[in-house]
Amino acid sequence: MEKTVYSVQGKELRKIDLDDSVFALPVNDDVIYYAITNELANMRVGTACTKDRSEVHGSNAKPYKQKGTGRARRGDKKSPILVGGGTMFGPKPRDYSYSIPKKMKRLAMKSILSLKAQNDTLVVVEDFTIESGKTKELVAIVDRFAKDTRTVIVLKDDDPLIKRAGRNIPTVSFLSFNRLRAHDLFYGRKIIMLETAAKNLAEFYNPKAEAD
After folding, report:
1. What is the dihedral of CA 145, 173, 164, 178, to 10 degrees?
2. Full set of structural domains in the chain with CATH
């Protein structure tokens, strides 16, 4: 697949051939769904906790006698049907995380990249960084390609300067080419990919590497 490489000023510089095995695959909706669901499940904290009747603080004494009152038979005040009593079948701390096959996750990432490339929501930009770390410089670049929309910038490495410049921009998130997230990629309205990152993705998702 051929894509245009743009400068940070928004001008066309040259053409680049993107690997068809990464950017021109048929979109597999099923694996995209499984990958996003897996990421969301792994993000869940799972710390919700309720007390059952054995854990509620209170007396174990019978509140009133068994017979003669015309009321229901009551064992203690911690019954789940009383105010202040325990909770029936409430949540307990648990681990929601699970893993999916590596090949499935890789296919999901390639499907999303192919979807974005085919829909022309993926823009390849020459490598750049923000030496000053100032937000306004990054905003000026991003606005040339995706103004006021959810944007994902795919970096060639873990660049602390560009991340520092973008931490105050709520609509911009950053991903390294070797640590992509299906959720962020799929829901990003615009993907700005650095030129080196696009080349590195071809090697990272090489089919031969998956077989090893």
Report:
1. -100
2. 2-28+102-211 (3.40.1370.10)
